[in-house]
Amino acid sequence: MKAIVSMIAAGVIVLSVGLLINAQKAHVLVDLKEANWGPAPPMLPPGAQIAVLAGNPTKATEYAVRLKFPSNYAIPAHSHPTDENVVVVSGAVTFGMGDKLIKGAGSNKTLSVGGFAQMPANVNHFAYTTQESTIVLFGQGPVEFKYVNPSDDPRSKSSGH
User: Fold this and answer.
1) Who has the most CB within 10 Å: 69, 83, 99, 144?
2) What is the pLDDT of residue 55?
3) What is the CATH number of the domain that holds 45?
4) How far is Cα 145 from Cα 58, in angstroms, rounded to an integer?
5) What is the pLDDT of residues 65-81, one digit of tens each?
């Protein structure tokens, strides 16, 4: 009987801690005009801007960010260690699969406003724009880029290697 009471007490404690943790979470409500834009991380080619909406894309947690790309912006072929989810919210973005960015390839697909893409973990892909475009990127962090061609990695250019 004493063991049953102890198990019930432990269950109540675990449930209470879980409820307390969930109670501390808050809704995230961010209007577009409230976006806090700044330069995108150096893993992206220069010119992109980022606004973090929720979470921390550098940590092993859920995240959501807005990324704004200028006209004629390109992200060379790369992969990520986690799935990447993308929704186009302005402009249009062209995506392609493979080891090299090839504009105009028949297998590329241009997504306009409302378009969705999911890039599976460890699958090489690329993206480019022809007009200023914004996406919402979300998933499970940490966000990391592994460029197919190491010389395409902007971090190697900025560090002088």
Assistant:
1) 69
2) 94
3) 2.60.120.10
4) 12
5) 999 999 999 999 999 99
